[in-house]
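input
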Amino acid sequence: MPLLPTALLLTTLLAPPPERFAWPLPPPHAVVRAFEAPASPFGPGHRGVDLSAPAGTPVLASGDATVVFAGAVAARTLVSLQHRAGLRTTYEPIAPTVTAGRPVRRGEVIGHLQPGHCPSACLHWGARRDTAYLDPLRLLSAGRVRLLPLPAPARGG
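output
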């Protein structure tokens, strides 16, 4: 079996572990409206998912981050979190319990769901990396398998 070059081995060993994300609401996690990627930056689409929950439900940070905005935009209040590698998540409409500049941990309460987004209360949870909108539900997956076990050697009979 060939050995990995030292630089590659060190880079692999010293690389930070992939960030883990969690649901931004306590269970159950009913998706009311799915993500619909816009065809262009200003085109139509649904730049997040809507998750059903009663008004007043605690909204949780989906991953470790820094609060970059917590307050009103137009007639709604929202919280926006900056994660590693250019990823930003947003949560609306919520009454924020955090302020800009504050670090938060995955699962920490960042606010409480307010009525007004859906016919019944629901959380709009969005994600984007730099300028590209992402389906936030894909943050919840375990990710790709990077190493697989070698198959057992064939036995001659």
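quick obs: The mean pLDDT is 84.
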